[in-house]
Amino acid sequence: MDKFVSIQLDRNSPEPLYVQIYEEIVRLIKEGVLLPGEKLPPIRKLAANLKVNTVTIVNAYKLLEKEGYAVSRVGSGTFIQSHLKESADLPVKNDSELEIDKIRFDFATASVPPEYFPVEIFKSSIIRVLDRDGGYAFAYNESPGFLPLRQSLEDFLYEEYKIKASRDNIHVVSGAQQGIDIISKALLDYGDTVFVESPTYPGAVDAFKSRGAKIVEITLRDDGIDMEELLSKIRSKPPKLFYTMPNFQNPTGISYSEQKKKELIALSKKFGFYILEDDHMNDLYYSEKPLPLKAYDEENRVFYIKSFSKILMPGLRLGFLLVPSDFSEIIAEVKYFSDIASSGLNQRVLDLMIREKSFYDHLTKIRRIYLEKWEIMTDSLKKHLPSPVTFSVPKGGLFYWLCLPEGFYSMNLYAGVIKKGIFIMPGDYFYPDQKPSPCFRLSIAQVPKEMINEGIEYLSHAIREFLKEFSFIPIKKSNYSPLL
């Protein structure tokens, strides 16, 4: 297995893991590390080595065969092709890459389109900050962040979400992923247990695993986690940390009921664990504004992290942590050793935008844009989606979670629809062990509102073809289920 130690997988990439493994093996072939006729590792052994599902390796090996790089011999295994065909000797794109170049309906990407960025507001604010602060705008700030911005965030939290915060416990970070990583380093030791929702955000799981934590999944229901399952697993072994996205969860779009939020807080106090709340898009609500879990935290058990990537501009790399006062010093130390401080200029600009309310004006605008998309998407799914497929309607955010009938897998659907110019996110991606999932995520972030209905029509037709090819399920025209 020594030849495969250089394989690096990006679990945050929208590109499926099996495609990444295929690419890495092709690289090893082209570099002469793997020789013609050489046997590839057994599926289970390579899967264990790369910490992926065996199905992922199967799909990677199948793609190698299809592209002429490998051959499968019954009873013997998979081997590098002895005589690589002419096309295989050249650097070529795999099927998925070729099709991604031709994507027409992008229902996978979660980032905000550049045309929605408040460029003019930001440009004006930069000029004013530079006129005001001169060269000081480029100096290092203290590690917790630019003090005036932390004061603005303190006011923002109370005005918007009734969260009483102290600026001394607010730490500016370079995006949510860094915030999760900082908290992991500050709280977790090797062997600690972390509970996560199932499914969940893979970037958080990777951060916890990097600390040697044991990951325990808790099933999501339509109003939040399964409380009976949670209590049972807590009694077996309480976690050190519970990671949650209680409003407009990624990938399911689910929001916790107020009762479940309060129950989770109560359990954290009773059993002595902490909660990491990831508020990735609480501002994108389409009816009633939900309160973060932190708003119910009278016991100081919640680490609250908020990113501005989904509502402002992802390239700013700005977010912040609100942490229990007992942990503020260690969080500041970990942040300092991570990157000393986040961009001082960007912090000053964001502070000015918040103080002068242009930030709030942008939130109102972006919420209105996505509300219109959300309405079109919901109507289109109800109208076109074939009946064996279920989906839930989120109350905010960007994501819809759709599930195929039992026995069908979203990775196989993904492979088919991407050839038709439709980009979806397979559910495998959102489970710690990358297990095959019948569910998949659709995002309204990138696809233009004028193309949503047409895109869902095409996707629904492709799903009908997919289901008919592999079963005799009678397919009606449409179906809607408010539950997962």
From TrEMBL:
It is an enzyme of class 2 (transferase). Keywords: Aminotransferase, DNA-binding, Pyridoxal phosphate, Transcription, Transcription regulation, Transferase. In the C-terminal section; belongs to the class-I pyridoxal-phosphate-dependent aminotransferase family. This is 2-aminoadipate transaminase. InterPro entries: Aminotransferase_I/II_large, HTH_trans_reg/aminotransferase, PyrdxlP-dep_Trfase, PyrdxlP-dep_Trfase_major, PyrdxlP-dep_Trfase_small, Tscrpt_reg_HTH_GntR, WH-like_DNA-bd_sf, WH_DNA-bd_sf. It comes from the Bacteria. Residues 15-83 form the HTH gntR-type domain. The keyword Flavoprotein does not apply. Its EC number is 2.6.1.39. Pfam families: Aminotran_1_2, GntR. One of its GO terms (molecular function) is pyridoxal phosphate binding.
